[in-house]
Amino acid sequence: MGRIGNIKERKNKQDSKKASVYTKLNRLITVAIREGGEDPEYNASLKTALDKARASNMPNDNIQRAIKKASGEIGNQTFEKIMYEGYGPSGVAVILEVLTENRNRTVGEIRYIFDKNGGNLGTSGCVSYLFERIGQILIEKSELIEEEMLLADSLEVGADDLEADEEVYEVKVTPSMFLEVKDALLKKGYSILDSDIIYKPTNLIHLSETDSIRMEKLIDMLEDNHDVQEIHHNWSKQ
Questions:
Q1: CB neighbours (10 Å) of residue 191?
Q2: Residue 96: helix, strand or coil by DSSP?
Q3: Angle between the N-to-C axes of helices 178-187 and 147-156, in degrees from 0 to 180, rounded to the nearest 10
Q4: CB 228 within 8 A of CB 197
Q5: CATH architecture of 80-129+203-233
Q6: Which ranges in the chain are annotated with CATH 3.30.70.980?
Q7: More confident residue, 172 or 13
C-alpha cells in the first residue's frame, strides 16, 4: 500500500470512529485556546487544530462548543499534555501524544494496551531519538506539477527540503514555519493532500505477518483511547 493508500485508510478509519475523533479534536481545540487565545491568526496551535477539525468534517456546533469550554463558559476541565514512548511487536518504536485530565488512569490504560499486543511502555527518551520532529506537507504527483518548480516555490516560502516517491511530493518544514509555508503553497495554487507536524522515523522496521496483525491491533486500540491524540511509529506497512 502506497502513501496515498495509507492516508485514505487512516481517513476511512476516522470516518468509522467519528465520535472518538470529535472528542479528541474537542480537547485539542480546548487546550490550544487556553494556551494561546481564541484568535487563530495569532495562535498557530489553534489554527492547526481547526484545520484538522475541518478536514475531519467536524460540525461547526462542536467547534463552537469546544471554544466555549476553553473560555470557561462550559465546564472547567484541565488537560495535561504528555508524550509516552514504547515498543510494539519486534521492537517497533512508538511515540504517543496524549491529552488527559487524569494521568494515572491514562498511563494504566496505555500500559495495558501495549502489554496486550506484544509490546511494552517504555521510559522517556527510549525511542524518541529514532525520530525527527518536522512539519510535513504532502502534495499528490500529477502532470501539472513540475518537481523543480515545486522545489523552488517551497524553498522560496521557507521550506527546508523536498522529497518525492512514486505517488507524492513531501515538503519538509521546520515546525515553527509549518503554517506559514502551508498557507503560502495554498496561495500559489497547490492542492495539499495531507499535512501535519509529525515525528518522522529515521529508519523503518518490517514485520512478519503475525507481528503485523498484532501491530495493527495495537494501533487500533490506541486510536480508540480518547486520551491518545497522535500515534507515531517506525513500522513499514509496505
A1: 11
A2: strand
A3: 130
A4: no
A5: 2-Layer Sandwich (3.30)
A6: 80-129+203-233, 131-201
A7: 172
CB 54 within 8 A of CB 40: no
CA distance 112 to 200: 25
Encode pLDDT of 172-186 as tens digits.
999 999 999 999 999
Class of domain 3-70 as given by CATH: mainly alpha
Residue with cell 515498543: 87
Q: Contact at 8 Å (CB) between 221 and 119? A: no
Nearest C-alpha neighbor of 154 from the set 176, 134, 137: 137
Say which DSSP state 130 is in.
Answer: G
Contact, 181 vs 81, CB < 8 A? no
- pLDDT tens, residue by residue, 110-167: 999 999 999 999 999 999 999 999 999 999 999 899 999 999 999 999 999 999 988 9
The model's pTM: 0.83
Which positions ≥6 away from 119 have C-beta within 8 Å? 86, 87, 88, 89, 92, 94, 218
Beta strands in 1-128 (DSSP E): 80-87, 93-100, 120-121
The CATH classification number of 131-201 equals: 3.30.70.980
Kindly report, as residue ranges, where domains of CATH 1.10.10.200 are found in the chain: 3-70
- What's the DSSP call for residue 55? H
